Amino acid sequence: MDVNLFDFDLARELIAERPVVPRDSARLLHVAPGGLDDACVRDLPRFLRPGDILVSNDTRVIPARLFGRKGEGGVELTLHERIGLDSWKAFARPAKKLRPGDRVRFADDFSAEVAEKGEAGEVTLRFDRGGDDLMLALDAYGKLPLPPYIRKGCADERDRDDYQTLFAREKGAVAAPTAGLHFTPDLLAAIDAAGILRTTLTLHVGAGTFLPVKVDDTKDHRMHSERGVVTPETADLVNRAKAAGGRVVAVGTTSLRLLESAAGEDGNLRPFDGATDIFITPGYRFKLVDVLMTNFHLPKSTLFMLVSAFAGLDRMQAAYAHAMAAGYRFYSYGDSCLLERKDA
Fold it and tell me: What does the radius of gyration of the chain's CA atoms come to, in whole angstroms?
């Protein structure tokens, strides 16, 4: 499909720099076949039904932005995919300074070797430590990798809390599953009281989620892979809820992408532990997810293509036009929308 079909103009002042407080006071646009409904995130339970199951991503963002030196020159690296206990793929700036065998130092006692060099500024790094020791070093020397459209990607101490969801448990993401940022203990209590089921999965969001689509046709775009886990327990909960007539409600596009990757053609969810590079565009046949809660996305992005596949391109264009006119806040720290699948 022509990428320009997913373009729109967004005023800079609609891009949220900080989240609202409390988190569940953000606005929520309900996008259903019958029209649009302006609401608040804390109204979410009234749009769901007893027996529905809410599936959230429990990945935790790590300080994956590193500033180091190779010789006398500075290098910025953003980790985006773990490939071993001590090895990560990363985007480098400037990449032209790096060659396989080069060592980048982040501190006197913390460094990495460039193991491979790929395309479009990507390198593979082999650190001088792995596992929990590497996570501790990242905590000490890394920076939180905010999206480039929020304060030019420069995080501060407040972001260390703001950019983690209530569900965050499994370390490994380099971007937050931002729909989950809206949840509070009070909202979860209201969801539970309404008879709505909850479970989690893990998809470690990569920095590839920030990358623009630079091709003219969607068929020519290559998605970066991300690692995910659906446990047998989660698969069983979702399948039993679906069999009992409940709807599967994905909290965020990351949850949806993993659910659809792990679903069989029979519509049942299967345990999953591996990588997915699923790219969902209009024409995709959804196997499992019925409702999607998500933030407002970048023009010409893979995520706006996904929501257009889910709810319909015309409906999403109308919804975004309404949101912009009504002053909704966009992107990672912005407001949310609740989408009903177009063929559900």
Answer: 20
Any domain includes 34: yes
Cβ-based burial of 81 (10 A; exposed 0-12, middle 13-18, buried ≥19):
buried
Residue 314: φ, ψ to 5°: -60, -40
H or E element in which residue 338 lies: strand 336-340
Instruction: Please answer whether residues 167 and 57 qualify as being in contact, where contact means their C-beta atoms are separated by less than 8 angstroms.
Output: yes
Sheet holding 291-295, edge to edge: 35-40, 27-32, 336-340, 291-295, 248-251, 53-57, 197-203, 226-230, 272-276
Mark 225-234 as b/e (b = at least 16 C-beta within 10 Å).
bbbbbbeeeb
CA-based angle 284:289:293, to the nearest 5? Answer: 105
3-state secondary structure of 118: coil
47-91 per-position pLDDT tens digit: 999 999 999 999 999 999 999 999 888 999 999 888 899 999 999
Burial status of residue 20 (CB atoms within 10 A of its CB: 0-12, 13-18, 19 or more):
middle
Say how far apart CA 295 and CA 337 lie, in whole Å. 6
CA dist 127 → 83, 112, 173, 192 (Å): 12, 4, 18, 43
Residues 94-149 have pLDDT tens digits of 988 899 999 999 999 999 999 999 887 899 999 999 999 999 999 999 999 888 88
- Same-domain status, 175 and 240: yes
Among 320, 14, 303, residue whose Cα is nearest residue 149: 14
**Residue at 156 is within a domain:** no
User: Residue 100, preceding bond cis, omega within 30 degrees?
Assistant: no
Query: What is the DSSP pairing of strand 336-340 with strand 27-32?
Result: parallel
Q: What is the pTM of this model?
A: 0.92
Task: Looking at the structure, tell me whether residues 79 and 50 fall in a common domain.
Answer: no
Domain that holds residue 47: 3-61+163-340
